[in-house]
Each structure stands twice: as structure tokens, then as C-alpha cells.
């Protein structure tokens, strides 16, 4: 399965969330990571993130794409944060 | 085509970016919108956004999924911003 993760968390927890997510996924933009995961790794990632975030304040959104990935990715403006572009 | 948009722009331009993007897409999280678009509408959306953003400072990322959409969407923590969940 291919997963896109977008986080929106309090600045106090950003570095922890990012560090954890980067163990599993590639960082592509300030608040966006993506990558191929097994179901087991995806569950593990979510469990680890749930331990970090404040569920009343933070939000982490996942898009699960099956094995197909996406057709293409485009960006306008500057490339931020993510140094792990694979294309 | 199905488009997921993630913006990361200076707070001074957030409301303009959001207002423009919402003419074309559904707002699903603080900085995330998505929806079905024609190629022509997608080009128009990008042109409008390019007129608003500062290309040296702001960043807008698009995932283009073809007509397939995604397998599923999951969220942990709070649902933020987007009041346009369609599921």
C-alpha cells in the first residue's frame, strides 16, 4: 500500500511527529510524507503517532492508495522541507 | 482526474489561497483540499493560485490520482478546518 501522510500538529510536537514519520516514510514537503508501507508497518506508525499527539489538538491525515501510487505530483512555488524527493 | 492539494503558505495569504482552492475542491483538513477536476479546471486553479502565492516563500503540492481516487482516508486526532467531509 502507498501512504500519503499530512500532519497538522502543535509546534511543540512537530519534531517528534516528523522524526517518527520519517522512520517509515519519505519527507516531501513541510508537513507531507509518503511511501510504500505494509499493513503492519502502517498500524505501527499510527500507534507510535497516537502516543505523541494530543488528540484534542493535533490532526494527522492519511491517504491510502493501494499499490497504485498516484499518477503524478506537481508543485507550485518553493519546495519546502522535504529533501527526500525521489523523482 | 482526482486531485489532492496541500498548501503551505504564509499566513498573510492563507485566506486567499483557501478561498480560491475552495472554488474547485472540497476542504478536508486545515491545509488539505481534494476533489474531482477536469484538466482544464486544474490548469485554471493552478493559474489562479500562482497569481496569489509568493513563489519564493509559499508552496502548494498537488497529487493527481487519475480517475481512481484513493482506497481510503484515515485520520488520527482531531478533524480540523475542513467541514466538507463527504463520507
UniProtKB/TrEMBL annotation, chains A, B:
SUPFAM superfamilies (UniProt xref): TTP0101/SSO1404-like
UniProt superkingdom: Bacteria
Lineage summary: Bacteria, Bacillati, Bacillota, Clostridia, Neomoorellales
InterPro entries referenced in this protein's UniProt entry, alphabetically: CRISPR_associated_Cas2, Virulence_VapD/CRISPR_Cas2
Residue positions binding Mg(2+): 8
Entry GO MF terms: hydrolase activity; metal ion binding; RNA endonuclease activity
UniProt cross-references to Pfam families, sorted A to Z: CRISPR_Cas2
Cofactor: Mg(2+)
This enzyme's EC code(s): 3.1.-.-
Subunit description: Homodimer, forms a heterotetramer with a Cas1 homodimer.
Function in brief: CRISPR (clustered regularly interspaced short palindromic repeat), is an adaptive immune system that provides protection against mobile genetic elements (viruses, transposable elements and conjugative plasmids). CRISPR clusters contain sequences complementary to antecedent mobile elements and target invading nucleic acids. CRISPR clusters are transcribed and processed into CRISPR RNA (crRNA). Functions as a ssRNA-specific endoribonuclease. Involved in the integration of spacer DNA into the CRISPR cassette.
Keyword list, A-Z: Antiviral defense, Endonuclease, Hydrolase, Magnesium, Metal-binding, Nuclease
Family of this protein: Belongs to the CRISPR-associated endoribonuclease Cas2 protein family.
Gene name of the record: cas2
GO biological process terms on file: defense response to virus; maintenance of CRISPR repeat elements
PANTHER family the UniProt entry points to: CRISPR-ASSOCIATED ENDORIBONUCLEASE CAS2 (PTHR34405)
The protein's name: CRISPR-associated endoribonuclease Cas2
